[in-house]
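Student: Send me a single protein entry containing the residue sequence and its fold in token form, directly below this note:

Tutor:
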Amino acid sequence: MPDRRNVNPDIPAFRILDENSSFIYLYDGSFEGLLTCAARSLKFKSPPWDILPGNTWQPDFFHSPVQVAPSAETAGRFSAWLQRRMGMDALVKTYYAFISGRPGVERMLCEYLETGISAGRRIDDMLSREEVHRIEMLAMNVTREYHKHLGFIRFAMLKNRDLLYARIKPANHILPLLAPHFIDRLPGQPWIIYDEGRMLSILSDGYRWFLNDQIPDGIPILKDDEKTWQELWKAFYRNIGIAERENQKLMQSLMPKRYWKNMIELQM
């Protein structure tokens, strides 16, 4: 990518989107696909009106669709260029904001990248700008939920196989962030984490992981001794607490109620 500088972010050196464009880019919904679209827009200097997942696009009379296939090579080069231009922190925030799954996040990210390409590494200090503040908040929300789930995920051992299973329902698509952590924490141990809200799961053999969009059949059957351990854990949780100091409001602020149904100790 060229490296022309523009110290004024109000006059972007490059445009990824153009409000007057007569076409839109449709992509596969992946981060790689979005970066491919942004790189293509800059390379050919013919920005689309918007970039949308192909499965959400509704035809209209004003914009022609252009299907853009994801390219690992293009996305990789563009990602490396963004890192040099904006810094690693900004690139991480871009990814975290993307996996928030917020409707319209593609346009938000394009506006953020336009500013970042112009401002360079100064973008981290430009929180007064709406396009920067939006991405900062989305990334922060994803980060918080990811860290909470590191402590709230409860695995159970399934019957007839040496496989751990956990079920979650996060607000953000944090499965790709959780996978490296649990591979490191559970080396050699096969496991599954199922996101029941998105009907996606991470499958790991203890060394590698991949996303799977097949829905598990029914409720997994637990090993007999797993049920015993769960009852012991529940008993420990009940007995370690001090009834006189119980504070439901504080508990909900530290442990959001939407997580409770998937936490063994709270399944009374």
In short: Confidence is low (pLDDT under 50) at residues 1-7, 232-237. The CA atoms of residues 156 and 227 lie 9 Å apart. Residues 23-144 form one domain. The first strand starts at residue 23 and ends at 27.
